[in-house]
Amino acid sequence: MLILNSHPDHGAALDPRDTAMLDAAATAEVAAYLAHRPDHRPTPLHALPALATELGVAAIHIKDEGPRLGLGSFKALGGAYAVIRLVLAEAGRALGRPVDYAEMQSGAVRRIASGLTIACATDGNHGRSVAQGAELIGARCVIFMHERVSDARVAAIARFGAEIVRVPGTYDDSVTEAARVANERGWITVSDTSWPGYEHIPGLVMQGYTALVAETVKALPAPPTHVFVQAGVGGLAAAVAGHMALVLGDTRPTMIVVEPERAACLYESARAGRPVKIAHGEPTVMAMLECYDPSPLAWRVLSRAADAFMTVGEDDAVAAMNRLARPAGDDPAIVAGESGGAGLAGFIRIAGDTTRRAALGIGPDARILAINSEGATDPERYRALTGLDPAMPPG
């Protein structure tokens, strides 16, 4: 399914609050933080010329977030950054002076951090980032995970010393429970979704994601004409669409938001013209995108900066994983998790439909960008869906 953005705000300038959150100055703040992370390296940007020829476009590039900060996904940029920003702000209040990123592992900051508890809900990747940030700066961390999250993803978070709390139901249920408990106990909730009165922290999370957009824009030989970006609650999609609108202006690409058919809360929001919470259905293989309630903060950006919304099926997602793992010609092999290839899956689905290609203005000169938002964050699941070991090149 595909719909064009018909919201009255489509194409309008971002809300000033969102401009401050996503502009070049905000990205420079993220870069200052990353400069003090010795494990930080820009992630690869891969060209796929064989696939581009097959699908009838000039170029396809994939930004591969699998290697990001050792956590396997783009989420590594958001949660940890928000944790560090919040703890340093608290340290600044306690010490009565500004506290720089260079001090984030100092004894004074860690003593203050040790008295703080950071909490969040997660499907896996966001919680991994929050837990890593808390460990890095010395704060206690409690992560709420719903019953469908795999044991492998639970273990990947627990290794950072976080306490894990299992919650019956879905991701949205875990968000509600995390916020309730944190509010009762005076903990700091670092959520990647927003709700009324709670925007600053998810805004910091989204701000962290702009680092990958800035890296991509710098590395591309020419700006993309079309970006297919996957969405759960919408934070990544909003960061990509908003930052590109701000830094590229009139040359910004056409932005297409891609969701699972079984969890398409932004698609339904676009149809309704306002944020819409949808009913829970059958679980999707795209576990990191299984969200039923969009972030109002992300929607505020996407209602202006996204141009179309679409859905992909289960088979589409798995096929994209396998196509990236087993490329044609000289295209590089890319390890993409169940949700990682969803953006590319969206383009592949559109590429075979002449009517929808025309609706999006995708011709032979189009330059397509997609983001592999995660690597094999659940290796057993990856093996089951591709028949390959994610640690080994295909052979």
From TrEMBL:
Its EC number is 4.3.1.15. InterPro entries: DiNH2opropionate_NH3_lyase, TrpB-like_PALP, TrpB-like_PALP_sf. The keyword Glycoprotein does not apply. Residues 38-372 form the Tryptophan synthase beta chain-like PALP domain. This is Diaminopropionate ammonia-lyase. Keywords: Lyase, Pyridoxal phosphate. Pfam families: PALP (PF00291). GO terms for molecular function: diaminopropionate ammonia-lyase activity. Gene3D superfamilies: 3.40.50.1100. Its cofactor is pyridoxal 5'-phosphate.
